[in-house]
Amino acid sequence: MKVHNFSAGPCILPQEVFEKAAQAVLNLDNSGLSILEISHRSEAFLAIMDEARALVLELMELDTKEYEVLFLQGGASMEFLRVPYNLLAEHQTATYLDTGNWASLAIAEARAFGTVAIVGSSKNKNYNYIPKDYAIPEDATYFHCTSNNTIYGTQIHDFPETKVPVICDMSSDIFSRKLDFTTFDLIYAGAQKNTGPAGVTLVVVKKEILGKSGRNIPNILDYQKHIAAKSMYNTPPVFAIYTSLLNLQWLKNKGGILAIEALNKEKAALLYAEIDRNPLFKGTANNADRSLMNVTFVLNDAGQTEKFAEICEDKGISGIVGHRSVGGYRASLYNALPKESVQALVNAMQELEK
Ligand SMILES: *Cc1c(COP(=O)(O)O)cnc(C)c1O
Fold it and tell me: Could you tell me the distance, in angstroms and rounded to a whole number, from the CA of residue 27 to the centre of ligand 1?
């Protein structure tokens, strides 16, 4: 039976990416060697790294002279720390938008390095909306936001206009929709949600914002050191980078970000329409802030939980249980999830209604 994988992360990747990655484990491009056993300094891997870095900038339409692409380790969580370590001096103030658990963890790390001003928070409603109408002081060192709140199913649809550098955790919606990426100064994303497998973090940084904090930064945490070493300061996660490259190639062949955005909008519209129509269910995120990637909803009558679980299991629907802090359901509709999978979930919801 086909399994429809709605997991929030690590998550579904295209079948063709799984197949190519599996092939490369056995024999990379007919070299007679596995991707797992070649040197990260080999010509074959250097070509993979170069292509991956170039493709990220191409898909995002970013200038190769202004921006650098890094493949690092430690997950998005490491960037919660690396960002203030590199950018925030002790006497400075960084501004943060508090839109959920991940944002709060980023805030907690920044507090170790300088002053943090929370310019907006939706904590009062368990993060079910995106704060609006907040002001970012012009003398702030940077503004940090989370573009998509994986746990709560909210997404920033309008980014604030500001002159201060904008830092964005795009872990769960990077490459899913067209944005003017030139308005961001540093973007980071744990790969396991829309970029590739777990084990690598993508960082895209505008070089001119670096080297200004005056802080003495340990090498392994210093973005400039990683840039100088072309993401090879230490052994990079070769397989995760290779598989991410395969996924980005798949995306490019699909028509790039604009094409996938159109499909993502169709998938989300299909599911939200059913949530709003079906009297048994209701959405948990504020309508205007609904995410195209993570759709959160609950049963109005918790007594139906078991029955719905049975129907879902019958239909091969996997990974829709909501995050433990929110409960209910969360269907993650990342780039690789086919529309048929969303239709299968809608069918399950309609079957429960009958
Ligand atoms: C999953 C997630 C993280 C944490 O990523 P790790 O790679 O596990 O550290 C951070 N931010 C967002 C928005 C996420 O969805």
Answer: 32
